[in-house]
Structure formats: structure tokens, C-alpha cells
Amino acid sequence: MDQAETVRTPSSWVVVGLDNGGTCNNATVLDATGQFLVNNLVENPSRVLDGPESAVESLAQAFTSILQLTSTPRSLVRAVGLDTPGPASAHGVISSKGATNFNQVSWHGFDIRGALETRLGLPVIYNNDANAAALYAHHRHFGAAAAEHSSVAAIVGTGLGGGVVQDGKVIRGAAGMAGELGHVQIPLHGVLDDGQPVPKCNCGFEGDVESIASLTGIKNNLLPYWLTRFPDHPLAGEPLGKAAKLLRGLGEKEDPLAMAVFTQQAKAIGKLFTIAANFTDPAAYFLGGGVVEAAPHFRQWFLNTVRESTELRDEQAKAATFALVADLDMAGARGAAVAALDAVVTAAR
């Protein structure tokens, strides 16, 4: 486990946040006053490819190690927040069809929240990873006034995740699938080039946000088209998967092909946020994912393009903020911890 800077030892009860990923778990501790006890990433191998039993044990190890690192007695822990990639139910049951990170049959329909709760003997509060990041972005941005505001977050990665927060709480929906913003179909006028094929998503939809604004969308839809417009481009000789991953670095250097791709992505997210404005009229629109990890000038350009592509009424434009998700690599674990803290406080009322 990586060494982390310890902020202080808690003097009251705490919750632990665990972010489960395809390669690593990330852990944090949040005390009853809302202070995080570590300032940076604390990881251990997630072992999800070894199956549910190994993965749950790795999460338990992450829990034990973060308590040791922060000198936190186990008796002070009231609850654990857990997030994983989706799709999963609102209660942490992995989809019956599996998922990218949970592709073995043993994962299909597995109750990862319940298994960790049994293993630790503590209440476990579940969110998917995009919802957790959205929740953290909201609380980090609004602070003590978080419960008075709403927000929408788009998290751009291999796919496009998202989260809708209302009055400081994530909206989960009846089946736990609220905030699946990547699969919202958007109007493509003003997004696609003349003659550009309608992008297709792995979910079966055509023209949803993820088919454009995601690494998968770049590989499957945007790059194949734009390479026909730039046939002599250096990426033309690379496998599509590798070329897609190289694109962000080229975008930072203002390469014309890369800028064409990322402009389309930003416009697609702007269309998504325009729809969100008419559904929830949020106080803030957050953008997270790989683009946030890019060079400052590039991520600011991307955020500005998203903002310019979002059609708001004058009243909405004056009331709303556009911002990048803070502390991206820690946002999942921190959001999971925020959800756990809220659950403990709510139960005590």
C-alpha cells in the first residue's frame, strides 16, 4: 500500500471510503466533523480478475490498512462507503450480465455490498463509481451549503458515467440506474460533421453521449471517421485502441485531428447538459474523467467548449456554475465516504 500523508488522528467516530477499480482499490477515512484523514491516494491491488472472494478480501485488506495508516481504532468506525464500476443495482448487486470489470460468470448477480458487510461486520453503503465521484464533486464545491443545491456531473472515461445530486444526495432511481448519463440520446445536429456516420454505442443505442464522449467512442466511432479526413496522420498507422489512448497527448499539442475529436466530445456533453438543464435546472455542472487529468490549458479549453455548447436560458446561465471534478483520483473513495457519513448522520436523527 502506498504511503500517504496522515492529517491527524480522529478524536471521534469515523467512516471509511473504499473505491473499487479494475486494477486497484483506493481507501480514505472521513471523521464525524467532515475532515479527511489522508491527503492523497492510498491503494492496494483490487484483484477483481481473481473473482469475488479474492476481491472482497482485498477490500477488507484496504480497510484494515487505511485504519493502520491513520492510527484509527477499528472501534471508531461506524460505517463503510463502497463504490464500484457499474452496472449494478442501487444495493450493490452486480448486473446479471456482468460488467467490464466483472466479466467472470462468478460476478454475475453477485452482491458485493452484502459480501463486504458480512466480511467487515459493519454497515456498508453502496454507490456506483460515477455517482460517488459526482457526490464528492458536489460536496467539495458547495461545502456546508451542499444540502441546499443540486448538480449534474459527467465523468468521461472508457465509457461515460454520471451522477445527479439533488439537495446534497445522489438520485439513485428505482433500479439504481439513475444518472446513467452516457446512455442519454442527444440531438446530433451541430455535433457531427457533414456525412459523418451516426455513432453507435456498445449498449445498442445510436447517438447517445457515450458513443461520442468516451474512450470507447473515440476508438469505435470518432477516430475511424476523422482518419478518413486526415489520411496522412501519424495515427493512421497505429491500431485504433492505441491511437485512441494517444489522442489526449496530441490534443494538448493542439493537433488538428485530435482537436476535431475533442471538440465533438465537448459539444456532445454540452447537448447532454442542455437536456439536464430542462430536467433538473442544477446549480452546477461538473466535468470529470481523463480530460481532467490533462494539461491545465487543455482541460480548461475543454470545459469552456462544454460551457459554450450548453444552451441555457439567461436566468439559468446567471445561476449555474461549470467546474472540473476536484481530486479526481481520490473522488470515488471520498464520495463513498461522504455517502457513508450522511447515512450515519441520517440514521441518528
Task: Indicate the topology.
Blueprint: E1 14-20, E2 24-31, E3 43-45, H1 52-69, E4 77-84, H2 112-120, E5 124-128, H3 129-142, E6 150-156, E7 160-166, E8 169-170, H4 215-229, H5 240-252, H6 256-279, E9 284-289, H7 296-309, H8 314-319, E10 321-324, H9 328-348
Parallel strand pairs: 1-4, 4-5, 6-9, 9-10
Antiparallel strand pairs: 1-2, 2-3, 6-7, 7-8
Pfam families: ROK (PF00480)
Family: Belongs to the ROK (NagC/XylR) family.
Protein name: ROK family transcriptional regulator
Descriptive labels:
single chain; 349 residues; alpha/beta; Nucleotidyltransferase, domain 5; five-stranded mixed sheet; 16% strand; globular; disordered N terminus; ROK family transcriptional regulator; ROK; ATPase_NBD
As for the CATH topology of the largest domain, it is: Nucleotidyltransferase, domain 5
Overall helicity: 25-40%
CATH superfamily of the largest domain: ATPase, nucleotide binding domain
The best one-word shape is globular
Largest sheet: 5 strands, mixed
How confident is the prediction overall: mean pLDDT?
Answer: 92
CA-atom Rg in angstroms: 20 Å
Structural class comes to: alpha/beta
Helix and strand run? EEEHEHEHEEEHHHEHHEH
Task: Report the sheet-strand fraction.
Answer: 15-25%
- Kindly give the count of domains: 2
Distance between the termini: 37 Å
Number of strands: 10
DSSP summary: helix tally = 9
Biggest sheet: strand arrangement: 3-2-1-4-5
CATH class of the largest domain: Alpha Beta
State the CATH architecture of the largest domain.
2-Layer Sandwich
